[in-house]
Amino acid sequence: MKPHTKIYLNHFGYTTADFIACEVCGAQAVDIHHLSPRGMGGDPQKKKDVIENLQALCRSCHHEADFGTKLPKEKLKQIHNARLEQWS
């Protein structure tokens, strides 16, 4: 399991067997998206692998977040921040 996925699961108390909903549409999430990308060189100091930068997304929403126009970064951040507030 990738470290950033483990960080997300641990924060929300999920296990790998749990249904994890996409934070945007509610479908089953299959990816943990970095709101602020790690970049081509990765993130060797793990500064981007923090819960504030990690969002569960289904494949469709993840593709839209990376390549589309319907889910701009600011909208994704608003959705994720609201989720974090619910869990605090």
Structure explained in plain terms:
This protein has 88 residues and is mainly alpha-helical. The protein has one domain (3-87). The chain has three helices and two strands. A two-stranded antiparallel sheet has the order 1-2. It is globular. The mean pLDDT is 90.
Concise overview:
39% of the residues lie in helices and 9% in strands.
Question: Which labels suit this protein?
Answer:
single chain; mainly alpha; 39% helix
**What's the N-to-C terminus distance?**
25 Å
Low-pLDDT stretches are: none
Give the tally of β-strands: 2
Report the sheet-strand fraction.
5-15%
Could you say which structural class the secondary elements and strand pairing correspond to? mainly alpha
- The tally of structural domains comes to 1
Coarse morphology: globular
Mean pLDDT, as a whole number?
A: 90
Number of helices: 3
Rg calculated over all Cα atoms = 12 Å
Order of helices and strands: HEEHH
Widest sheet, order of strands: 1-2
Q: How are the elements arranged and paired?
A:
Blueprint: H1 3-12, E1 31-34, E2 54-57, H2 59-67, H3 73-87
Antiparallel strand pairs: 1-2
